Amino acid sequence: MSAILPDELRAIVVDTVERIWNGNDWSTAADTYAEDVIVHVPFQVEPLRGLDEFRTFHQELHHAFPDWNATVHRAVADGDIVAMQWTIRGTNHGSLRGLPATGRTFETHEAVFVRVLPDGRGAEFWFYVDEFGIARQLGLAPSGPPPKALIYAMLLARRLRRRATSAR
Q1: What pLDDT is stored for residue 157 in this prediction?
Q2: Where do the H-state alpha helices sit in 77-130?
Q3: Coil, helix or strand for 21?
Q4: Beta strands in 20-166 (DSSP E)
Q5: 120 CA to centre of own chain
Q6: Which of the residues in the chain have pLDDT under 70?
Q7: Which residues make Cβ contacts (< 8 Å) with residue 149, sequence separation at least 6?
Q8: What is the pLDDT of residue 132?
Q9: What are phi and psi of 113, to 5 degrees?
Q10: DSSP 26
Q11: So what CATH class is 6-166?
């Protein structure tokens, strides 16, 4: 459990979003995140581990979306966990993990959960992202309802990722 009061915990996490992510300023990351931070992102089988991998992800994201921005709508603290609902948006001006730049914008709603250490540093993150919705807005996936085969393929990929993770 966190020794930090819920209001303080929420303020720390929201400040981090503004300072590091919206401000694209990684200079205080060592004071903000644990050295062995773990970051779960849905488009990767393995979570990001450590400040170096998290920094690389941050740099890639801001290269692809230089105007990336999050608006936090709600932040709720319970023990050492902060749950956030936010809207993210950006314009795709660079490639990201093999996907080409499209010049298009996206806007989507996400849920993020953060486990915070007693000293206020972020230790673990879980991002829940509408990947397919973002891909559609960027022109990287067809619009309209997804074909059944695609839905089955996505479900199968998710199951395989879970099995691979649980087998370790």
Answers
A1: 82
A2: none
A3: helix
A4: 33-40, 48-49, 69-78, 81-91, 105-116, 122-128
A5: 19
A6: 1-2, 146, 168
A7: none
A8: 84
A9: -120, 140
A10: G
A11: alpha beta
